[in-house]
Write a structure and sequence with these properties.
Low-confidence stretches: none
Strand order of the largest sheet: 2-1-5-3-4
Mean pLDDT: 93
Helix content: 10-25%
Radius of gyration: 12 Å
Number of strands: 5
Number of helices: 2
Shape: globular
Distance between the termini: 43 Å
Strand content: 25-35%
Length: 82
């Protein structure tokens, strides 16, 4: 298993009630798999997770990027403003 830290920002943080989550996923899990898992384990995040931007080890990552061992994944919901 691969233990990763998921950092949450803005509304994701509010809905989860935490700044970060430690989660174990099977080795070879990609970003899409992580998002699906978080949607299941944290239903309050499900709607927000449909449009998040993802950073893995401080670089933007596509949904098909495989998560390396001990990675740090940051999730950012879309923001608007002017």
């Amino acid at each position: 298993m691969n233990k990763i830290r998921v950092l949450l920002f803005a509304t994701l943080r509010q809905h989860a009630g935490a700044k970060s989550i430690l989660i174990e996923v099977p080795e070879g899990t990609d970003i899409r798999g992580l998002i699906d898992r978080l949607s299941t384990e944290y239903p309050s995040l499900k709607q927000d997770l449909t449009t998040v931007l993802v950073s893995m080890n401080k670089e933007y990552a596509p949904e098909n990027a495989v998560i390396p061992v001990d990675a740090e994944v940051a999730l950012f919901p879309p923001v608007s403003g002017g």
